[in-house]
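new request in #modeling-help
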Amino acid sequence: MVYYYRCYNVIDNNRGTYVKKINYKHLKRSLWAYHMNTGSCNACDIEILATLMPRYDAERFGIKLVGSPRHADVLLVTGTVTEKIKDKILQVYQQVPKPKLVMIIGSCGATKGVFHESYAMAGPLDTLLPVDVYVPGCPPRPEAIIYGVAKAWEKLEEL
Amino acid sequence: MIMILAIALIMTIVGLILGLLLKGIDRKIAAYFQSRIGPPLLQPVYDIIKLMYKQTIIPVTAVRWLFSSAPVIALASSALLLLYITIPYIFYIFEINTTLQGDLIVVLYCILIPSIAMVTGAFSSGSPYAAIGAQREMVILMSIELPIAVVIISVAWHAADSMADPFAISSLFEYPLWHNAGAFGVLGGILLFFAMVLVLPAEMSRVPFDQAEAETELAEGISVEYSGKLLAFILLTDAFKALALSMLVVILFFPYTLSQLFGISFQMYGHTLTPFVEIVFLLFKIIVIYSFGITFIRVVMARLKISQVARFFLFAITAISIIGLILIMLDPNMRII
Ligand code: SF4
């Protein structure tokens, strides 16, 4: 089950005003994802890869994993944000060109998950960045990740 | 003059669409091999449209004018390459007599320009990943230069035998490589074809020769800092190059038209439709060459190391192409001296 919270523009400063409405439409047909690990236990990362594998075949929706944040449309963040990686994820977010989405994969990023008592955590991510879609689960199944992308599309239509 | 300009304009637009479609077909076939459904055929077009609407970021560390002009130069020169190779063939199909012959040596140089422009852009971006990617791209370019030159020289050698202008593209259609060939000539031709097909993915930087853009180790290598419109230009360059290079293989090795092969022509209501059918046949040949030369190899192989690639092209492929050249020279049916 995927929960979808309507909490974009948390500390958003440059979206909604700068980007015109038409721009988001084109993300529906081709969504390039950049995957960033901010201290996850690697299970979520493997589930993302499983989503792209032949069984679920995310490429048929135009979803592609790219190697550089400059090419990305959506930032897939796995894991709770550690103190060490906090400024890196902020930098990467700024490197993504403008019509951009942020998706959290896994409970860690949304709530700190099992690491909630740790002293080394700067997260959860939505206190740092405007997050569009949360996909909870530890780790979430590939179906849930695809459903999260579908939710992101629904959201794009509203914008 | 005006006619040539008009044809060039139409062909640039058509070539753009066909090149993007070719990439779509490539992704569809690759998906078929991995028993996936694959993206829609027009997926590259959607990607380009999306990138056109995205923000274009120019990093502070970049040399601004060089960084933003490199993809434009690459796009323009790859379009030039496509037109330069294709227009003589189109004239030949439509049986238009011109003095426009094309020159194989110019093609040899034109192939280089898009890659050199990309390397320049990568170096000017100021990113260490891009710098490593650009160095790798230079190594690959230098090592595939000799095989391409040898292939083109052997084809020209054969054309010179037939009293045609040896380095004119148009004389390739009249006297293809297999024309009047003996056993040695056929064997040499097959070796040259093999060398040329292996050069194809290296020139297009596709797996196994995509070290310059290795996305897992170099984060997309030479295009790492490009975004938005500039990235769209790079993808369009790729589409033009895909079409132009498979077209080059077609005219070097299989320039036969349907009427040459089977002596057939197509008529409808008293108009001749032959040229249009020939164009469809040409597209069919291009798709076959592209899917066997690039998609097939891309799906079954993994990325090699850069030193392996350099050794492979500098020794193995160069040797194969030179043996092909010698075999063609030895062929008693086409002796020039
Ligand atoms: S949500 Fe669970 S599986 Fe995912 S990174 Fe956190 S602990 Fe690992």
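bot summary: Chain B has a mean pLDDT of 85.
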